[in-house]
């Protein structure tokens, strides 16, 4: 990884099963992890992602992990469907 990029990243362990949200996250790369989760854990992880991302923050998933329409709903918009890239969507009604 380029040193100038690496210096701008905070590295930390995060267990999607037991840990809570990060705040003000701009980009989440979570590739080839959700495919190993059952639906309950997958929904938990997606809630963590949604709560952690800033409005219009990016969520990148693996090729075999597209969000179902019910999972997008008011939380995520598709940014690049073929690349499984989504953006946190906050409806105007819930923004303050
Ligand atoms: C198949 S690997 C994918 C690694 C990499 N993201 C990739 O696409 O090559 C699955 C990853 O899920 C991580 N993982 C497994 N359980 C996890 C959990 N509860 N919370 C966070 N990450 C987890 C593992 O540490 C592992 O790195």
What does this structure look like?
The chain has a single domain, classed as Vaccinia Virus protein VP39 (Rossmann fold, 3-Layer(aba) Sandwich). It is globular. The protein has a four-stranded mixed sheet with strand order 1-2-4-3. It has helices spanning 3-6, 39-52, 69-72; strands at residues 25-30, 53-61, 76-80, 85-88. With 96 residues, the chain is of the alpha+beta class. The protein contains three helices and four strands. The longest helix has 14 residues, at 39-52. The structure holds S-adenosylmethionine. S-adenosylmethionine (SAM) binds next to loops.
List the helices and strands and how they pair.
Blueprint: H1 3-6, E1 25-30, H2 39-52, E2 53-61, H3 69-72, E3 76-80, E4 85-88
Parallel strand pairs: 1-2
Antiparallel strand pairs: 2-4, 3-4
S-adenosylmethionine binds next to loops.
Overview features:
96 residues, alpha+beta, Rossmann fold, 3 helices, 4 strands, 23% helix, binds S-adenosylmethionine
Summarize the main sheet: 4 strands, mixed
Bound molecules: S-adenosylmethionine
Tell me the count of domains. Answer: 1
Structural class: alpha+beta
Rg from C-alpha positions? 14 Å
CATH architecture: 3-Layer(aba) Sandwich
Order of strands in the sheet with most strands: 1-2-4-3
Determine the mean pLDDT: 90
CATH topology: Rossmann fold
The CATH superfamily name is: Vaccinia Virus protein VP39
| CATH classification class | Alpha Beta
Distance N terminus to C terminus? Answer: 37 Å
Shape: globular
Order of helices and strands: HEHEHEE
Helix content: 10-25%
What's the helix count? Answer: 3
| Low-confidence runs of at least 5 consecutive residues | none
